[in-house]
């Protein structure tokens, strides 16, 4: 490819992203006439119309939209290659996008680890998202994710962080007022507080008799739903109802007596918490460095 074509493509991306010749010209520091000429040369070279033009509007053609996506991906690859080249001098720089569960794990473990990492590498920028959504990492902009529970995407690289046990808890005041259930099916008569999981799986097993195993699934209809573990725990302490939270969240509250664990024989076996990332991100030195840092911090 000719060097001039790369310049024309850069102009094309700027115009397409800004949806305006004027704004793109300001961004690139050139005139509208020059930018318009660049786009015209690109279309003449490929003999394809990339933009649909009217007196008031400039929009991409169907072919132009597809070309833009491929060009944006190519530019991202080139930028990452440049950053990796700079990182060979042991100077990490660039942006890292991390999505994580919130609450105790996100705020008390992940966030402090990220902050310490950034203090060591001042040229790193981090976008830390606590939305808790299970996003498609390959299709999304995220480089890393903290996932709780069993993983359902084998295409991701996974690093184990910790184990936790889902624990059903309530406040002493709630139990005194409404009683304590002896079976999960009695929870339909109680108020519940839940997060993003709408079905609670209960398993009761006798370690001395493997065949003595009972399972129960509760579809929760909660009085309060929140993706934040702190909010769920606060509501539970306030006596709003039962909540099912990871053991790492409620450990201190159980020891202090603010919360009480119920249906202990029905609590699930341990579940894992992982740090995951797409294979393509593994080549980025800054992503690998932060991943290793978080894994070490959680041990």
Plain-language structure description:
- By secondary structure, the protein is an alpha/beta fold.
- It contains nine helices and 14 strands.
Q: Main β-sheet: number of strands, strand sense, barrel status?
A: 5 strands, mixed
Q: Looking at the structure, what is the overall shape? A: elongated
- Find the count of extended strands (DSSP E, 2+ residues): 14
Share in β-strands: 15-25%
Report the C-alpha radius of gyration, rounded: 26 Å
**CATH class term of the largest domain:** Alpha Beta
Mean pLDDT: 86
Number of contiguous helices: 9
Helix content: 40-55%
Supply the helix-strand structural class. alpha/beta
Low-confidence stretches: none
Summarize the structure.
This protein is α/β, with parallel strands linked by helices and 299 residues long.
What's the arrangement of secondary structure elements?
Layout: H1 3-18, H2 21-28, H3 32-46, E1 51-53, E2 58-60, H4 62-87, E3 94-99, H5 103-120, E4 124-129, E5 144-148, E6 157-164, E7 166-170, H6 172-178, E8 192-194, E9 199-206, E10 209-219, E11 224-225, H7 229-237, E12 242-246, H8 247-256, E13 260-261, E14 271-277, H9 285-298
Parallel strand pairs: 3-4, 3-5, 8-11, 8-12
Antiparallel strand pairs: 1-2, 5-14, 6-14, 7-12, 7-13, 9-10
